[in-house]
Amino acid sequence: MKISPDLRKVLLIVWMMIGLAVLLMIAVPFLFKEDAVLGNLPECSYKKLYGRECLFCGMTRSFYCISRGELGKASEFNRLGLYLYAAFAVNEACILIFILKLINNRWRLENAHH
Each residue of 16-66: pLDDT tens digit? Predict the structure, then answer.
């Protein structure tokens, strides 16, 4: 299946925007104290409505534990936290590599004309 250049640009912009949001999620545990963040989060509406935890309950605490290297404890808060954090980290690495390649290609093009 051939992707048009316009669709490719749109998908790239969406990927970068999602990547920025993910980067912020990964950065929060390093920038803000856990109590300050947890104290400002609303109660899970799924838990409030159905009386049981949703798929993402405990994810914030799990991410905080991962940022401190407490992987076992992170898994106790949310078993998917480790996998999601790893997927986020891989995505951010891919974006970084993509951006570095763009910069390198642009630099080569600019210097090829001189």
Answer: 999 999 999 999 999 999 999 999 999 899 999 999 999 999 999 999 999
* DSSP assignment of the chain: -PPPHHHHHHHHHHHHHHHHHHHHHHHHHHHS-HHHHHHHSPPPHHHHHHSS--TTTTHHHHHHHHHTT-HHHHHHH-TTHHHHHHHHHHHHHHHHHHHHHHHHHHHHHHHHT-
Name the pTM for this structure.
0.81
Q: Which residues contact 25 (CB under 8 A, 6 or more apart)?
A: 63, 88
